C-alpha cells in the first residue's frame, strides 16, 4: 500500500512540503492536501491590494493549478482532527493517514478587540485588505493609527511597512499634510532581533513624521468618540484604524487536543517539528516553536518535516534539525525594499542582520514570489 500523507492547510508550509514530497516520491505516495480556500495569496500581497498596487484577482493563485504526481488537492473545511489515529474529517469525507501534517496557520479574531469590527479596519485578512481599497480614498484628514492588538502576530515588519506605505499613499493623493500617522506595537523596537533594521525603520519614520508608540497594544476602539484605547489606558484620537487583529490557534486544532487553548500554539519538538503524537507534525504559524510567524519560517519548517518523512520512508539518517532561520523583505516606501536575515534558534538569543534597501533587493523580492509560484503551481511567469 502507498504511504498516506495528509497535509492540512495549503499555505506556505503545506505547499512547500507537498512540493518536496511529490518531487521525492511521485506516484508512489498518496498525498492529500486539504484547504478550505480555492486560492493561495502571499501575505505581502495584502499590502499591495489595500493600497491599490494590485487588483485582488491578480494576487490569487488558484489551487486547481496544482498538478503534481502523487498529490490530490481537496478544497474542503477540516472539521475534526484525531491526532492519535491520524484521522481527519472534512466536509468531503474522512481521511486516514500514516503521516499527518497540520499547517493550518493562525486564525484572525477582529471581534476580540472591542470596537474594531464596528469602527475599525484590519489588513491581515484578504477580505480586510480588499475592503480597505474603498476606505482609504475616503480618509482625507485626521489621525490614522496602525495598531497591533495581540502580542503574537504574523510578519512583525508588516505594521511598520503599512505605515510607510500609507505615508506614500497619502502623499501621492495630496493629503499627507492634513493627516497624522502613528504605529502602536507591543515591542520596544520595530524588529527586536535586529537593532540595525529597527534603527533604519525608526529613521524612516522620523523623516516622514510617523509617530512610533512602543511596548503597547491597542485594546479597544471607541468609534463614537473616535479614540483608540491602548493597553496602558492611554487614549489616542483615531479617525482611521488599520489593525492587526488578535491571532488565535484555529478552533479545530484546539478541539483536537494538539493545542491547550486558543493562544497556546501547538507544542512541538524544536528539532523535528513533531508533536507529542507520533507521526503528527505541526508546521508554520500554527506551531509554538518560537520563531516569528512568517511564511519563510513556515517553509523552513516544512523542509525539515519533508526531510524527516523522506528519511523515514527510505530508511536514511535523521535530517539536520530545524534551524529557525529566515529572511524577510521589508518595504520602506518610495519603492525601496530592505531585508533582514533572522536567526532565532541557533544562538543564546535571536539575531538579525540588516541589508539596506536597494534595487537588487526589489528584484530579489520579485524573484521570491515568482520562484515559489513556479515550484508550487508550475506557473511559467507571474
Ligand atoms: C500583511 C502581511 C504581510 C506579510 N508579509 C510576509 C512577508 O513578507 N514574508 C513572509 O515570510 N511572511 C509574511 N507574512 C506572513 C505569512 O503570510 C504567514 O506567516 C504564512 O502564510 C504562514 O504560513 P502557514 O503555512 O503557516 O499558514 P498559512 O499560509 O496561513 O496557511 C494556512 C492555510 O490553512 C487553511 N485553513 C485554515 N483553517 C482551515 C480549516 N479548518 N480547514 C481547511 N483549511 C483551513 C487556510 O485557508 C490557509 O490557506 C505576511 C502576513 C501578512 C498578513
Topology readout:
Blueprint: E1 3-8, H1 12-25, E2 29-35, E3 39-40, H2 45-50, E4 61-62, E5 71-75, E6 78-82, E7 87-90, E8 93-96, E9 99-102, E10 107-109, H3 116-119, E11 121-122, H4 126-135, E12 142-148, H5 158-172, E13 179-184, H6 195-208, E14 210-213, E15 218-222, E16 227-230, E17 235-237, E18 240-244, E19 246-248, H7 251-255, E20 280-282, H8 295-314, E21 325-333, E22 336-343, E23 351-355, H9 359-377
Parallel strand pairs: 1-2, 1-9, 2-5, 9-20, 11-18, 12-13, 12-18, 13-14
Antiparallel strand pairs: 3-4, 6-7, 7-8, 10-19, 15-16, 16-17, 21-22, 22-23
Helix pairs in contact: 1-8, 5-6
Bound molecules: flavin-adenine dinucleotide.
Classify the fold: give the CATH topology of the largest domain.
FAD/NAD(P)-binding domain
Mean pLDDT: 96
Instruction: Please work out how many helical segments DSSP would assign.
Output: 9
Question: Which structural class should the secondary elements be placed in?
Answer: alpha/beta
Give the number of domains.
Answer: 2
Shape: globular
* Helical content band: 25-40%
Secondary structure: number of strands: 23
Distance between the termini: 38 Å
Fourth-tier CATH superfamily name of the largest domain: FAD/NAD(P)-binding domain
CATH architecture of the largest domain: 3-Layer(bba) Sandwich
Which ligands accompany this protein?
flavin-adenine dinucleotide
Description:
With 382 residues, the protein is α/β, with parallel strands linked by helices. The chain folds into 2 domains: 3-106 and 249-322, FAD/NAD(P)-binding domain, CATH 3.50.50; 108-247, FAD/NAD(P)-binding domain, CATH 3.50.50.60. It is built from 9 helices and 23 strands. It has helices at 12-25, 45-50, 116-119, 126-135, 158-172, 195-208, 251-255, 295-314, 359-377, and strands at residues 3-8, 29-35, 39-40, 61-62, 71-75, 78-82, 87-90, 93-96, 99-102, 107-109, 121-122, 142-148, 179-184, 210-213, 218-222, 227-230, 235-237, 240-244, 246-248, 280-282, 325-333, 336-343, 351-355. A hairpin with a 2-residue loop joins strand 21 and strand 22. The structure holds flavin-adenine dinucleotide (FAD).
Amino acid at each position: 500500500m502507498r504511504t498516506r500523507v495528509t497535509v492540512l492547510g495549503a499555505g506556505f508550509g503545506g505547499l512547500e512540503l507537498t512540493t518536496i514530497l511529490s518531487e521525492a516520491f511521485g506516484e508512489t505516495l498518496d498525498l492529500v492536501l486539504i484547504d478550505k480556500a480555492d486560492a493561495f495569496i502571499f501575505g505581502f500581497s495584502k499590502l499591495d491590494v489595500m493600497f491599490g498596487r494590485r487588483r485582488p484577482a491578480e494576487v490569487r493563485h488558484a489551487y486547481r493549478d496544482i498538478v503534481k504526481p502523487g498529490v490530490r488537492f481537496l478544497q474542503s473545511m477540516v472539521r475534526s482532527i484525531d491526532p492519535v489515529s491520524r484521522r481527519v474529517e472534512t466536509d468531503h469525507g474522512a481521511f486516514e493517514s500514516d503521516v499527518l501534517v497540520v499547517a493550518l496557520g493562525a486564525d484572525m479574531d477582529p471581534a476580540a478587540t472591542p470596537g474594531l469590527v464596528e469602527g475599525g479596519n484590519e489588513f491581515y485578512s484578504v477580505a480586510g485588505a480588499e475592503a480597505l481599497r474603498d476606505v482609504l480614498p475616503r480618509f482625507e484628514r485626521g489621525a490614522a493609527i496602525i495598531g497591533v492588538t495581540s502580542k503574537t502576530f504574523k510578519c512583525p515588519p508588516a505594521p511598520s511597512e503599512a505605515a510607510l506605505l500609507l505615508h506614500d499613499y497619502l502623499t501621492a493623493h495630496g493629503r499627507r499634510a492634513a493627516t497624522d500617522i502613528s504605529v502602536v506595537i507591543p515591542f520596544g523596537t520595530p524588529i527586536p532581533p535586529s537593532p540595525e533594521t529597527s534603527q533604519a525603520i525608526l529613521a524612516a519614520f522620523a523623516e516622514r513624521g510617523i509617530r512610533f508608540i512602543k511596548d503597547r497594544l491597542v485594546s479597544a476602539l471607541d468609534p463614537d468618540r473616535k479614540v483608540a484605547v491602548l493597553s496602558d489606558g492611554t487614549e489616542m484620537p483615531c479617525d482611521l484604524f488599520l489593525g492587526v487583529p488578535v491571532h488565535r490557534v484555529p478552533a479545530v486544532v484546539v478541539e483536537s487536543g494538539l493545542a491547550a487553548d486558543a493562544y497556546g500554539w501547538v507544542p512541538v519538538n524544536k528539532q523535528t517539528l513533531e508533536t507529542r503524537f507520533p507521526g503528527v507534525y505541526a508546521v508554520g504559524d500554527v506551531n509554538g516553536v518560537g520563531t516569528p510567524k512568517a511564511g519563510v519560517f513556515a517553509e523552513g519548517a516544512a523542509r525539515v518535516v519533508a526531510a524527516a518523512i523522506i528519511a523515514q520512508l527510505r530508511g536514511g539518517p535523521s535530517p539536520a534539525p530545524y534551524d529557525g532561520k529566515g529572511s524577510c523583505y521589508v518595504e520602506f516606501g518610495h519603492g525601496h525594499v530592505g531585508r533582514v536575515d533572522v536567526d532565532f534558534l541557533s544562538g543564546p538569543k535571536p539575531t538579525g542582520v540588516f541589508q539596506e534597501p536597494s534595487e537588487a533587493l526589489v528584484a530579489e523580492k520579485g524573484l521570491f514570489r515568482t520562484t515559489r509560484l513556479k515550484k508550487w503551481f508550475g506557473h511559467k511567469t507571474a
